[in-house]
Amino acid sequence: MQRLNTQILEPQSKMEETLRSIWEENNFALDIPIIDLHHTWLVWLLLQLENESNKPDSPESIEKIDTIISELVNFVTEHFWVEECLLDYTEFPQTKQHLIQHRGFVEEISQNISYRQINSNEQISEFIRILKDWLIKHILVEDTKYKEFFLKERIDTRPFFDDLMKNQKSVLISKDQANLFNRISGNDTMTEVISRDIAVDVYKIWKAYSLGLYIPSIDAEHLWLVKVLVELERANKSYDSRNRDIFFKKSILDMINYARDHFLIEETIMKEFGYPEYNKHMNEHRKFIEFINFRNLQKKEKVLTVYLGIVNDLKQWLISHVAIEDKQMAVFLRDSVKEIEEFISIKTNKNIFTIKPEHKRFYIQILKMVER
Ligand SMILES: [Fe+2]
Ligand SMILES: [Fe+2]
Ligand SMILES: [Fe+2]
After folding, report:
1. Ligand 3 being an ion, which residues bring their Cβ within 5 A of it?
2. Is the domain defined by 208-371 classed in CATH 1.20.120.50?
3. What's the 146 CA to ligand 2 centre distance in angstroms?
4. Is CB count within 10 Å lower at the N or C end of the chain?
């Protein structure tokens, strides 16, 4: 994890005491280790956010808030993935309702973190209040339902978690998360697990934030952008400054190409198919270009937080612009998907649109994971 990140998430004893008392007083433990670890981490992140939002407004505190929210997005991706796999595995009868709840939470996050929308601590306080209410209710009511189902049906979840832990590709536990959980639960069994498969991480984000629009050519481009994010975040966490720099430059180039190729396709389609929010949407696209330029400048000025900044920007973009604005566009275009695909393919053949073959290949790879 980056220097700044570790600094922020470093256990602070007072906050840890608060976490412990929330944990114990509410009887939060489901006695399902990885799920419990995830729940402690979520409460922990919310406490961090709360703490930060109580400080006076400053560019520094906004940067820190962005970082914690970025962690929160990672966490939610990971947690919902594991929990939903578990509910599938155990054939929990209320899985569908549970999934609807999760999507609701994701929507709450997406709605609130539209690019640079949160800029005052007042807004963030309201946001935290909503998240906290949701979380506590969800763990105590909804998650307890599956715990009781497991007990009643005598379902042993250990084989599921053993498989998950052994197969290091499908679960991710950071050192900070493992240590915090061990301290809170009085355990010493949880250890760090690092994921290695980029495609799995991309798919997790794709699924948790429901990024699919069901317009293949557009989905392929959005998926590519998620891949850029995953690679960038990994390079940042690797502590290898040369690697970090290589990925920074590569990602900036990728994003510039993305902005040129993808926005042209989206904007042409919106115009061609009469999307009423065309102007508003186009203005949003400009913000993407603005943050790339801004981070590029920061890089030249050797600003240390630039690596973290670009990850936050990109993540906010995906779960606000793609998950909300692009989705609204897709809802409007729903009945014309076939015509849109034909339109894109004609323009691509005439070299007016560019869709890179590697983007298509990656999209097909992810589609296969969805079908599994
Ligand atoms: Fe849940
Ligand atoms: Fe898009
Ligand atoms: Fe867009």
Report:
1. 266, 326
2. yes
3. 37
4. C
* Å from CA of 73 to ligand 3 middle: 20
Dihedral angle over CA of 350, 253, 330, 69, nearest 10? 180
Domain residue spans in the chain?
3-185, 208-371
Distance 100 CA to ligand 1 centre (A): 10
Q: Indicate the SS3 state at residue 30.
A: coil
C-alpha distances in Å from residue 336, one per residue of 159, 215, 216, 280: 45, 10, 13, 21
Q: 232 and 251 in contact (C-beta within 8 Å)?
A: yes
CA of 54 to the centre of ligand 2 (A): 35
Q: Which residue has the tokens 């801004």?
A: 294
Equal fold, 3-185 vs 208-371: yes
Ligand closest to the CA atom of residue 261? 2
Q: Residue 262 Cα, ligand 2 centroid: separation in angstroms?
A: 7
* Predicted confidence pLDDT, tens digits, the chain (372 residues): 334 444 444 546 888 998 898 888 888 888 888 899 999 999 999 898 888 888 877 777 777 888 888 888 888 888 998 999 999 999 999 999 999 999 988 888 887 776 445 556 667 778 888 888 888 889 889 999 999 999 999 999 988 888 887 765 567 788 888 888 888 888 777 877 776 688 888 998 998 888 999 999 999 999 999 999 999 988 887 777 888 888 899 999 999 999 999 999 999 999 999 999 999 999 999 999 999 999 999 999 998 889 989 998 999 999 889 999 999 999 999 999 999 999 999 999 999 999 999 999 999 999 888 776
Please tell me the distance between residue 330's alpha carbon and the centre of ligand 2 in angstroms: 10
Long-range contacts of 276-282 (CB under 8 A, 24+ apart): 276/332, 277/328, 277/329, 277/332, 281/325, 281/329
Distance, in Å, from the CA atom of 23 to the CA atom of 135, rounded to the nearest integer, reads: 12
Ligand nearest 99 Cα, by number?
1
| 350 C-alpha to ligand 1 centroid (Å) | 48
What CATH fold (topology level) applies to the domain 3-185? Answer: Four Helix Bundle (Hemerythrin (Met), subunit A) (1.20.120)
Which pTM was predicted? Answer: 0.79
